[in-house]
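Our platform keeps sequence and structure together, in a single record for each protein. Such a record has a labelled line for the sequence and another for the backbone structure tokens. Nothing more is needed to write down the fold, since each code stands for a local backbone conformation. For reference, a complete record is included directly beneath this paragraph:
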Amino acid sequence: MADYKSIKGTKIQNYTTDPDNPLTGQVWYNETDQVLKVSTGPLVNAWATSTPYPSERYGLAAAGSKTAAVTAGGWLTSNAFTFDGTSWSAIPSINTARRYLPGVGTQTAALIFGGGNPLPTAITESWNGSAWTEVNDLNTSRSGLAGAGTQTAALGFGGFTPPTSAAETESWNGTSWTEVNDLNTARRYLGGVGADNTSALAFGGQVPPITGATESWNGTSWTEVNDLNSTRYYIGGAGVQTDALAFGGTPPSSPVTGATESWNGTSWTEVNDLNIATTEAGSAGTSGTNAISIAGIEPVTAQLDRVEVWGTSGGNKTITSS
């Protein structure tokens, strides 16, 4: 294979703008920006390992983005942390330790609800950036439910009310929960994303059996849309109704998967897997290109403290002296 030297020689080429289709490894000087650049290959979305979680944990709640997240709970703890994209910081603990609960909102304005302690609870807690406050409970106690929305406009759906899976959906207006129309398919340990309580996406889960069913919420009712390519439960999710990412979980054929799928508002497309197959992880993110997978379980080492973030690699990079 020809290298840069044999194609371009030893002289660095000057450009006023970056070349349209540089070869991987090609180096040039951008006269406009006055920097030396290199092509690190075509743009590719993939998972990258980030700073480990402060402890091995699974079934925790998470909200926010990959550079500004808040987490709470997990098996079986009340610990909570924030993440700035580089480091984790301990914050005040939640009032009730529990696992398998969703988190919605932002790093400084979040809501967590339901979960197991180990029995299902209806407890709802609100985070204002300084403290967790117990607010009005869900109408139905559930563990393994999914959530979407914000601190003041959220949706909680599905879950586990022993001995059966739940289809119940509840809408939060910032003060109280109201029962609205059920999911078409009752299930637990499903994924969920959404911008508020009027637009959400539910996917995967265990009925039983394990399902790849996907449903879209329009503020009034759920509509069945195209299924995931890989059926699984204990699945992670990030994004909104029209731009989402689903990752990890437990499929029918094995205890864990790293499969990742991208949703464009119509269908799911298989993309690059997690670096380590993970199930029961905490997950958050604002879009299909902004996601974080936090801790969880994998068969060899059991509980994990591993953190992975979804992003773009490749493209034109500035060469620096450091």
In short: The chain has one helix and 30 strands. The longest helix spans residues 4-8. The two ends are 30 Å apart (CA to CA).
